[in-house]
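QA checklist item 7 of 12: single-chain prediction sanity check.
[x] sequence parsed
[x] length recorded as 192
[x] structure emitted
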Amino acid sequence: MKKTLIINGHPDKESFNYALSDAYKKGAISSGADIKEINIRELNFNPNLQFGYRKRMELEPDLIAAQEKLIWANHIVWVYPVWWSSVPAIMKGFLDRILLPGFAFKKKENSLLADKCLTGKSARIICTLDQPPWYYSLVYKSPSHNAIKKGTLHYIGVKKARIITIGPIRLSKEKFRTKWLNKVEKLGQKNR
């Protein structure tokens, strides 16, 4: 059975990103997947990794629970908007605080390389834009895609990560949004 964790990085519960999360969840449940969720906006934690890795910050209970869900899952779905060619601040703080040395990776002594600790998992990235995806790719070279897929997921051991980019959301019509909700639900049914 596929153990799927859906992580929503949008700070607004009324956003289209929440509808996308729900659509994926509906599809995944219909295919028999076991589902857990993390809505980052609902977590109680300090998003500032104020000492970097120099000094340890104690993890809040919500972050400990989030780490346990990451370990449990064999498929992780990330849903978030692209803001300023990146992820929302609350999502970046979440990543900074939970993907710690010893949990997500282990630094090798006398080396710049690290061992990956979250191997054997796959990921689906669903992100929204206020511009056409082709423009984001061609003009900006998809920086948030590279940061999440390569700089984060590949670094911690999640090698198989697929991205779907939906946009432009701003000024989009109901027909456009419904089409994407249906597509995302079908992705959930395939659990990929």
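[x] summary fact logged: The chain has one domain: 3-190.
[ ] second reviewer sign-off
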